[in-house]
Amino acid sequence: MSVAGPPGSVMDRDEVDRALVRLDAEHEAIETSLLALQDHAGRRLLEGAKLTGTTHERWLATEGRITLLWTYFDAYAGALNTAREVRERRRWPNRDDLLELTRLLRGRSVTVAGGSASGAAASITGPAKLTEEFTLEELVARMNDLYAHSLDLVVAADAVWSALPARIDLLAAELQRTRQLAHSVGVRPGEHPSGDDLERITHELTALREQVVSDPLAFWQPTRGSSAPGGGRPHTDRYDHAARALEDVRREIDAVLTVRQDAEARLGKLRDVLSRADRTLAEARSARGEVLAKIAASEVPAVSGPPTALQEQLAMAADYRRNAQWHRLSPLLESLEQKAEDELLRARESLTAVTAPLAVRAELRGRLDAYKAKVARHGLAEDPFLIERYDAARRMLWSAPCDLRVADEAVLRYQRAAADALASRVPQQGGPTDRRGEA
Prior knowledge:
- By secondary structure, the protein is mainly alpha-helical.
- It has four domains: 144 residues; 100 residues, no CATH class; 89 residues; 71 residues.
- Helix 6 runs parallel beside helix 8.
- The radius of gyration is 50 Å and the shape is elongated.
């Protein structure tokens, strides 16, 4: 450390005393910060960890900065002690004392060997020099800069280590419980997709934890514009992806467990649905024979037999249940339930299609009888013409085989005859007609 010439005007005693008080306060603050950095849990972890990747490279540079910080601090403390000694020579310093104090407090009075600035700190301090000269204020600014960069890295690494490994361990514990549960219901690697997923998640969590421990800064996401030490947050994309994948597996395992609990009830319901479909198809086949015997000139669709494939799959599902192969039973039951409902719907549609001609005949019979009753209420039950038309339609509807087209025309003829007869009879039975022509 050497002394340069005094810059500007010479300081008086009050200015010197105020400067020393301020510099003493800065010295104490810097020392407190350096000691806190030295004792920081993140720094101790960085010193003891086997680092890799980005963290390894940046920590090498930061170690150089911390070493340089202490070198600068020692030089700063030495210069400040020298200034104190000069000031303490006399209560009332003479001009020579004030000149020397001015040089110490305001001039480039601190010289630090360039070798003290390691290459790792060159990004902050600039290219290495044989010596560097500072004023005390410049030296404080340089130390603040080095401290901020060093603390930023230490806080970032500590934040990642504080957040991720514990969460990974909790997720790994949950993964282990899920693996045991999956094994108990037959979900194993190579036998079920969820078993393979559990293997992949296990490998991913193991690799993730190793990388987080050795290279925490690879998982740090800085916040732009933040001036706080370590401004940013740990990014947890890989952890979140693994957690979501495990949750998906958990839901699949829960579905398998649900199958185990209500498999018998679901199988019973399946048997019932398929039995109802079979009975409906049997009814449709019986109805088709009746339609062919009673209805003439009508297209009657054929009725298929019960599907043997569904019965075979139902037997397979029962076999899976007996052998506790729940992971195989779960998807098969879901598929069978949908197919069984579709089969029942198909059987009902087949019955409806087959019995449609009988429904048409029933509708024609009902319409014919309804008009006969209406005619009777108006006193026309004995009308020979209407009786003839009614008997013609009735013979067609109650004979076998029934030609629906001809029967429909006969019913229409009766309806028209009944309507004409009723229309001619209304004015004779009514009272006087008003001016609008209404009875």
